[in-house]
Amino acid sequence: MHSTVYEISERPIPVNQQITPGYLPDWFFNSICSYATKMSAAERESSIRYLVKHFGSLCDCNGDQIVFSPLLKQQYFKEKYEAFKAAAQKLAETEYAKFAGILSAETLRLTINSLMGSYADQYGVYIYESGKLLPLDDWIRKMETKTSKTFYVGGTVWYHF
User: Fold this and answer.
1) What are the tens digits of pLDDT across the range 57-108?
2) Most exposed residue of 24, 79, 155, 157, measured as fewest CB within 10 angstroms of its CB?
3) pTM higher than 0.85 for the full model?
4) Contact 159, 3 (CB under 8 A)
5) Under the phi-then-psi rule, with left for phi > 0, alpha for psi from -120 to 50, and beta for the rest, what region is 145?
6) What is the spatial distance between Cα 93 and Cα 12, in angstroms, rounded to a whole number?
């Protein structure tokens, strides 16, 4: 399976300064990514369109420039929050014997993964900004969204996990 790393900045990023896989940290290759490649210009454009479509009305695009709505956090996490609560409730009801491995607990690991994935998808889109790499959900949580926020997309890297 594969996903994308988007380089994001508050200023335009010249093509010759955009990220390549070599910018990505070692921990990413050691725990998430098996290999990565820089996208072609056409792949990059398509990938930016995908990102904007992912956010729907909460994001607008003009070339390399993307603008996020001040309502991003209020709207984007609603479904993920419900999935998080459902997984947490399921975990809260887990019997000790399953937790301890006394009884078979095949679904326990799936529920734990569901809980973690609903908070931040470790195998999905990543944002590279100011030398830091974060899963998209974590990046959004850290973003200031009291007003519309404008960013520029720099390099895009395709990665396999």
Assistant:
1) 999 999 999 999 999 999 999 999 999 999 999 999 999 999 999 998 888 9
2) 79
3) yes
4) yes
5) alpha
6) 49
